[in-house]
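---------- Forwarded message ----------

FYI, see the Aldo/keto reductase record below. Original note from H. follows.
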Amino acid sequence: MKSITFNHQNTSAIGIGTWHIGEGNNMMTESEMAAMRYGLDHGINVIDTAEMYGEGKSETLIGNVLKDYHRNDIQLISKFYPYHATPKLIEESLKASLKRLQTDYLDLYLLHWRGKTPLSETVIGLERMVKAGLIRNWGVSNFDRSDLEELFSVPDGENCRINEDLYNIGSRGIEYSVLPWQKKNHVSFIGYSPFGSDGGEFLKIKPVLTEMAQQKGVSVHQLLLAWVLRNHDLLSIPKTSSVEHMQSNLEAIDISFTKDELELLDKYYPAPKNEGRLEMI
């Protein structure tokens, strides 16, 4: 398994995303659990979830899987709603997540997106959870550069370890200023939805992708994931609901691109040329 430096640790090149995981029937749940176990058994050591995912069903499924693994070998990430962003509600949400996940700590706890609670209050709550030993570090999600700059301006805001945003070949907004800012300030990045959304509104599959995938002897989904991973400087967290899909994701890690191939993809899916509003799923 190739690795990257993420959250100041040696981390697998991809993680396991869990949006919509645990929301189906018993057969689907068994398939999802088998896929997660396969990923963990083959070197993946990051799982990303949230209290929002199935209103706790995703966390419950993960907890049932992790009973069979050494907790310290896995970086476990969860997120809390923006309307749970006060110190009191952060603690309540965190303890509920820990119970569902069957663990006594999280490696990272993230504000899922910005709400009405001042960032200064949210940071106070997160720092308290660090001191209490319930989380090791904390971060944010769906923040743009101005949000991150504001976060760093409040007391202890610079303790933010990661930011998680939408990132795929059709949604490249973070490349303009978010990624450079995070690299400069040593904040790790997670890109979610490398294949776009289920409805396809965030990623249109153009013929160039199908043709290039055929030339390389890989699937379009493998090509999309390999493109996100091309610079080996961020973590992508594809959702996987079957062992077959997990195997496909793992194989995508070894796909590389020539300079000409990347330039061709840039032609059809151009990088941002100015600061714009980031897309969010």
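H. also flagged this: The chain has ten helices and ten strands.
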